[in-house]
C-alpha cells in the first residue's frame, strides 16, 4: 500500500538517509517498507487518515525542541506557517527553571514521562520553555502539575515555576495566545513567586493593575468567559452572588429563584470558565472580568 501511496506523493522518500532533516517529513511504515511524505505536500486531514492505516514511524506531533521544528519556528517567527499536525486543540504549559546545570534532554524526558498524551517541549532558552499539550486525554490539573514540579525539583535540584494556559484551536491565532500567556507568566513570577503553578485566575488582578489602559481586556474576557458572556442570565446570577458576599440564600432571594437553581447556575459557570467563585481569588477574578465585560 505504501508503494501505491508513493504515486500520489512523488516527492516522498523511502529512506530516512535521503534527507538531512527527517522532521520535514511525515513518516509511515508497514511490515515491509517505510515512506516519508514532505510536510508541505500533505494536509492535516490526510495525516489523520494515514495514521489510521499505517504506523507512524516518527510521531508527527513529537517535534521536541529540534532546531528546525515547525512548532519552534511557528512560535518564534512571525511569518512562519502553522505546523501540520493532527492536533485540533492545544494548550501551552509555560515553565521556568532557576538554573540548568543538567541536560535539557534529561529534564525533557522526565517531564514528558508524566504526560499521558503526545506532547512536545519547545525550549526558548536554557532555563525556559513551553510544553504543548493536545486535548486528546484528560489534561493535567494544576494539582497534578504541582506534584510533578515537586518531583522534578527533587530529581534535578532546581526550582520550577509553571503557568497553565487554556486550550485553543490550532490556527493562526495560536501564536497570539502564546504571547499573551507568556506575559501572564511574567506577571506571575513577579507577584506570585512562591506559587509553583499559576493560571489566569491567579494573575488577572495583577495584570489589570499593570495595564491601566486595559488594552488586553478583551483577550482576558474571551479567555475567561468565552461563550458564557452571551448568557446574560448566568452572568447576572454570578455577579449578584458575588455582590451578596457569596451568601447563596441572600443571593437567591435577590434573584427571586430557588437556592437549588442558584447552585446549578454557579456550578454551570464554574464548569464553563474554570473559576470556582466560592474561592476568594477566583471570585475576585470573575467579578473584575464581569465588570470589564459590562
From TrEMBL:
Q: Which residues form the PucR C-terminal helix-turn-helix domain?
A: 234-291
A family per Pfam: HTH_30
Which residue ranges traverse the bilayer? none
> Where on the tree of life does the source sit, at the highest rank?
Bacteria
Q: Tell me which PANTHER family the record gives.
A: CARBOHYDRATE DIACID REGULATOR
Entry protein name: Transcriptional regulator
- Identify the coding gene: yxkF
Amino acid at each position: 500500500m505504501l508503494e501505491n501511496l508513493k504515486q500520489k506523493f512523488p516527492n516522498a522518500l523511502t529512506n530516512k538517509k535521503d534527507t538531512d532533516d527527517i522532521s520535514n517529513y511525515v513518516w509511515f511504515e508497514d511490515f515491509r517498507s517505510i515512506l516519508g511524505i514532505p510536510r508541505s505536500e500533505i494536509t492535516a486531514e490526510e495525516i489523520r487518515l494515514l495514521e489510521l492505516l499505517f504506523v507512524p514511524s516518527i510521531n508527527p506531533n513529537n517535534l521536541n525542541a529540534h532546531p528546525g521544528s515547525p512548532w519552534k519556528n511557528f512560535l518564534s517567527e512571525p511569518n512562519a506557517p502553522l505546523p501540520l499536525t493532527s492536533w485540533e486543540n492545544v494548550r501551552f504549559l509555560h515553565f521556568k527553571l532557576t538554573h540548568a546545570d543538567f541536560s535539557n534532554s534529561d529534564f525533557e524526558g522526565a517531564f514528558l514521562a508524566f504526560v499521558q498524551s503526545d506532547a512536545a517541549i519547545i525550549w526558548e532558552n536554557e532555563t525556559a520553555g513551553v510544553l504543548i499539550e493536545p486535548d486528546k486525554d484528560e489534561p493535567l490539573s494544576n494539582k497534578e502539575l504541582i506534584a510533578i514540579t515537586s518531583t522534578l525539583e527533587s530529581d534535578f535540584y532546581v526550582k520550577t515555576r509553571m503557568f497553565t494556559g487554556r486550550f485553543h484551536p490550532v490556527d493562526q491565532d495560536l501564536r497570539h495566545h502564546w504571547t499573551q500567556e507568556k506575559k501572564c507568566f511574567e506577571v506571575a513570577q513577579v507577584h506570585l513567586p512562591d506559587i509553583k503553578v499559576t493560571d489566569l485566575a491567579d494573575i488577572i488582578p495583577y495584570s489589570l493593575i499593570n495595564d491601566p489602559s486595559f488594552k488586553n481586556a478583551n483577550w482576558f474576557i474571551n479567555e475567561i468567559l468565552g461563550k458564557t458572556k452571551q448568557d446574560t442570565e448566568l452572568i447576572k446570577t454570578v455577579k449578584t452572588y458575588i455582590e451578596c458576599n457569596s451568601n447563596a440564600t441572600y443571593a437567591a432571594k435577590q434573584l427571586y429563584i430557588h437556592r437549588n437553581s442558584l447552585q446549578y447556575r454557579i456550578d454551570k459557570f464554574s464548569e464553563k470558565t474554570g473559576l470556582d467563585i466560592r474561592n476568594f481569588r477566583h471570585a475576585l477574578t470573575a467579578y473584575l472580568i464581569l465588570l470589564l465585560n459590562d
